[in-house]
Amino acid sequence: MKNRIRIYLGIITMIFFISCSLSKPQKQQLEDISGQWEETWGAGEPTNVDYADVYIITTNTQNKPTITCPKRKNYVFEQITFDGKKIITHLVIKDLKYGAGDAWVDYTLEMQEDKNSFKGTALTKAGKKATIIWKKIANL
Q1: Nearest CA-CA partner of 65 in 109, 120, 104, 124
Q2: Over the stretch 2-47, which tens digit does the pLDDT of each residue have?
Q3: What is the CATH number of domain 25-138?
Q4: Domain ranges of the chain
Q5: DSSP labels for 57-102?
Q6: CA nearest 105: which of 20, 64, 62, 47?
Q7: Is the distance from CB of 71 to CB of 13 less than 8 angstroms?
């Protein structure tokens, strides 16, 4: 009976560690995305966005990615997930000026093979969807 319990506990422990290692990005993958990333909206599509924000991706003390926009303090990235290949995040743009309420953008971006760019889509609060590219412009 004790041997069966040990075997079951061993199997459960092994499954737990395998699932944890598969669901979290490895340290090297997090280092690959750390840096400054310049955003292009509507790559190959008409768009009214005529500026390029620069985002900084770093890793916090829990070994999870954080994203900031140094030139736009009202940009707050929430719910950031990175599985080693894809970033999914929710950006809240705090309304500090117009009183119209906060805006938001949902990003789903996949790392390209060169590891120096992400490509995917952004969906805005207004319901507009655009192709997005984040190109790495500097390492940290």
Answers
A1: 109
A2: 666 666 656 665 665 555 544 456 777 888 899 999 999 987 888 8
A3: 2.40.128
A4: 25-138
A5: EEE-TTS-EEEE-TT-TTEEEEEEEE-SSEEEEEEEE--SSSSS--
A6: 47
A7: no
Question: Counting runs of H as helices and runs of E as strands, what totals does the chain give?
Answer: 2, 8
Assigned token pair, 96: 């500090």
Do 117 and 135 meet the contact criterion of CB atoms below 8 Å apart?
A: yes
Q: Residue with structure tokens 């310049």?
A: 38
Per-residue pLDDT tens for 58-69? 999 888 999 999
Q: Which of 108, 39, 102 has the alpha carbon at shortest distance from 80?
A: 108
